[in-house]
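pinned: reference chain
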Amino acid sequence: MRERARLRWGLALAIAVVAVAVALGGCAPKQEEAKWPQNPVKVVVGFPPGGPTDVQARVVVPLMQKYLGGSWAVSNQAGAAGSIGASEVVKAAKDGYTLLYGSETMSVWQVMDIVDLNPTRDFEPIGIGAEAIVGLSVPANSRFTSVQQLIDEAKANPGKVQVSTAGPATMAHVSGLLLEKYMGVKFTYVPFQGGGPAVMAAVGGQVDVTMEPVTNVIEHHKGGTLKILAILDNKRDSRLPDVPALGEIYPEMKPYLPYGPYFGLFAPKGIPDNVKKTLVDGITKVFADEEWKSKVNTLYLVGVNKIGDDARAYLDAWTSRASWILYEAGVAKKSPEQFGIPRPK
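pinned: its structure tokens
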């Protein structure tokens, strides 16, 4: 009898333990719903330290850590127009712990035959924070004192005006092609190893003009070694009140402006929904942070703050425009149609 009682008691106790475990298990958060991040987050920048993409990333990343917690760090992996670092991000585990702080080169990798990666097909755009303002700049002692003089020369003597660039399909190159296409001018492009050397070539008078972001030329403009003749926009920037906008001088350019590189945070396609939501919540707070706003102002950037579907639409439009400009100019190695990139509307 005692033995049977002990067995009944043991069985009842086991059933009770299982019931409690089931109840507790039902209340426990699922793994994918657990607070994120639990591990260090690496944000890859596909360019060397000190460039505009890197500078912005080093503001955004600490702010993401501030709002989301955990440990965050920037990892520079330069090469092939930023695609080496981006390729690592795509191949990484789809858990949100390897991200990319990218820029406009992502939009032309395919047509330039650098790598078959697309900013919305292969990545999840978390937030596009800023655009750079492109300045059309000449040496301080240039024979051109206005953008009208420069454009007239490039029309009258095709190929005579030399433009320094950081290489094919970079911002200065695409900006020049944009003017060629819609203003009937023709430039000769002189490539250098990066935006910095391209700017210094203009400072030293080796070329007639460069079309780098204002961020890269503002100190030379202030110091009197370069002069920004115009910005590729439809209205003047309050930080540069004496510099005209190209669209105000040439109204026919207004539909194609402003034109400037973008910068933003990306995750590889396929991250869990809860991680994506957490990242979007974090970047939304970053874009509202006064430290970020101050950096946008001091770097002569324009805050765009595109999130979610707005970011995707923005990127698709930018990719379409840049890809077709390059292809129709004979610079792109592959047709945008090959990748399903529609013509700009």
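why pinned: The radius of gyration is 26 Å. Residues 9-32 have pLDDT under 50 and may be disordered.
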